[in-house]
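Q: For a teaching handout, I want to show students what a protein-ligand complex looks like in token form. Below are the inputs, and the small molecule is magnesium ion. Please produce the holo structure.
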Amino acid sequence: MAAEMRGAHAIQVEGLRVTFGDFVAIPNLTFTASYGEIHGVIGPNGAGKTTLLDVITGKTRPKEGTVLLDGKIDLRRLSEPQIALAGVGRKFQKPSVFEALSVRENLELALRLRAGSILSELRGWTDPRRAARVAEVLGETGLTDRADAPAGILAHGQKQWLEIGMLLMQRPKLLMLDEPVAGMTDSETSHTADLVRRLRAPDRAILVIEHDMAFVEEIATRVTVLHEGTPIFAGAMADARTDARVRDVYLGRH
Ligand code: ADP
Ligand code: MG
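A: Here is the structure, written as tokens, with magnesium ion included.
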């Protein structure tokens, strides 16, 4: 399955229009994210980055346009929980872990929430398999030695990694991170870059929203630059740096 998915579009947005009252946040956006890639979406504050994620997750309903998962699942017809179950995982800017529970318990809970609903395949999981998945994700997020600590005492960066871990428990095919390094120290930021790079997989598309170019440059394989809800650049990050329109927008000369 993984080989077939490589290069295919995980998410395909066409002719997207989003308005809030009279305000047009996204006039007409076409955007794709492919399996095996880490897509960066960058742009100044107010560019419409979070709005795009809100549309994909079903939180905001667009006026017009198509939003397809796997080129065939029409996300506009699904509810937010249905979209999550279809394989879309989204991390918000503010971490929302269960502070009184341990790191391990948070991860177990993330699996159970999903298993208890529709995914019957997981219901049959024996405890050793659950434990193995938890151990795997603890390793991936670098939280193995914090497994039994209450999530409430973790440093800000560790809480963010735990929340990414909670998303990973569900093996999302589309993983979306909104400003994952906001408020992090330099060392937490570089740990997060390592973590996100390790998450790249042929059967997973990763979408990272940031207004800071430097972090995206470290991790993204492709980048889209948004300005007032319109993509003004799509391509390699190295080329974005030297693009005249991108420079104007970032230097505030537009
Ligand atoms: P970004 O994440 O790129 O900083 P947003 O997607 O949050 O930008 O916002 C894009 C524009 O849409 C901004 O001008 C913002 O004020 C507006 N906006 C976003 N959500 C709402 C909303 N729920 N109601 C009204 N305006 C909104
Ligand atoms: Mg935002």
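A: Two things your students might notice: The pocket of magnesium ion (ligand 2) is lined by residues 49-50 (CB under 6 Å). DSSP finds eleven helices and ten strands in the chain.
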